[in-house]
Amino acid sequence: MHSTLKEHGVIREETSGVVLFVGQVVNPLLLALKPAFKETIENAYRSAVGHVDFRNQSNVAREAVNAWAEEKTNGVIQNLLSPGSVTSKTMLILANALYFKGAWDSSFDPFRTQVRHFFLLNGSSVRVPFMTSSKDQFALAFDDFKVLKLPYQTGQDTRAFSMYFFLPNARDGLRVLVEKFGSISGFIEHHTPRQRVEMGDFRLPKFKISFDFEASEFFKGQGLVLPFEGGLTEMVDSQLGISLFIHKAFVEVDEKGTKAAAAVSCHVTSVGFSMSKPVDVFDFVADHPFLFVIREDISGVVLFVGQVVNPLLSV
Questions:
Q1: Of 250, 249, 248, 245, which Cα lies nearest the Cα of 215?
Q2: CA 1 to CA 5: how far, in whole Å?
Q3: Is the pLDDT of residue 225 over 90?
Q4: Is residue 13 part of a domain?
Q5: Residues 12, 55: one domain?
Q6: Total-model pTM
Q7: Alpha carbons 160 and 111: distance in angstroms, whole number
Q8: Are 79 and 175 contained in the same domain?
Q9: Which residues of 195-232 are buried (b: 16+ CB within 10 A; e: fewer)?
Q10: Is residue 89, in this structure, part of any structural domain at all?
Q11: Which of 17, 45, 105, 195 is most buried, by CB atoms within 10 Å?
């Protein structure tokens, strides 16, 4: 992911990077990064390569990675690595962090925010604050879902970020929508609103979600098995494989804009399109589970993807 963001100029060194802590392990194996890989990390990514004695100072390594992730995400991602996750058998940690904070191009008036019902997948509902606006918005309607695009304010450079909300028509339609999103090539590009439309009933919930999970089995299930079976040959000469892949993310949406961050840590040990429907006045009431995307529109690079099933729930 980092190389893609870097290549397209989406990220800057001060807000994202890669840090590696290389373990000093007992003989006869002495782990050393290949010169070409080390040079790429230091020069192309302007990132750090540090040495830690995992055998005797595993907790020091864990705390160092946590401090780095917290710094790179402006304090949003804390305790990326839990106690006990780094042990004397750990030989390499690859950590990546990305922080994003954007102000809406057209902010919401907080005095118009009202508490309404948000309907959950189990049929119940919770009461959450909904933002609204009478301004025209970028929106499109398709057969079984709607798309809303909220641009962020642009800076001095050429980057243009937006947040997309994919709302199924059915209250329980999120699963089908996610399947389409993941299986259709170019889904976002082919369902991107290009023009502003007059809004009718427009409500968007404020939400703050954070989650973390161990992603090794997920990637294996998607067919990505080589890195877990000693396939890190571009890094080192030894037969090393990823033993733990931790992902932690945070996204907050309110009247001013979005704050989002994600951090990833890998532990290594030996081893057909819908057609849009024209409308005169557009209703977009996100009062049931939906999908969201934060994207840089010039390059098309996606920074964050997530689902909101309960705006009050932090997983």
A1: 245
A2: 6
A3: no
A4: yes
A5: yes
A6: 0.77
A7: 28
A8: no
A9: eebebeebbbbbbebbebeebbeeeeeeeeeebbebbb
A10: yes
A11: 17
Q: Which two tokens stand for residue 279?
A: 């409308």
Please give the pLDDT value at position 173: 97
Spatial CA neighbour of 289 closest among 126, 119, 77: 119
The whole-angstrom separation of Cα 263 and Cα 175 is 25
> What pLDDT, on a 0 to 100 scale, did the predictor assign at position 310?
95
Whole-number pLDDT of residue 82 = 85
pLDDT, tens only, 152-181: 998 777 788 999 999 999 999 999 999 999
Q: What is the mean pLDDT of the chain?
A: 78
Helix (H) / strand (E) containing 174: helix 174-183
User: Do residues 82 and 58 lie in contact, with contact meaning Cβ atoms separated by under 8 Å?
Assistant: no
Q: 64, 50 in Cβ contact below 8 A? A: yes
Kindly give, in sequence order, each residue whose CB lies less than 8 Å from that of residue 288, ignoring residues fewer than 6 positions away.
118, 119, 120, 167, 168, 171, 172, 174
Structure-token match 């840090």, residue found:
19
Residues in the chain: 315
> Residue 79's domain is classified under what CATH number?
3.30.497.10
| Residues paired with residue 103 on neighbouring β-strands, in sequence order | 257
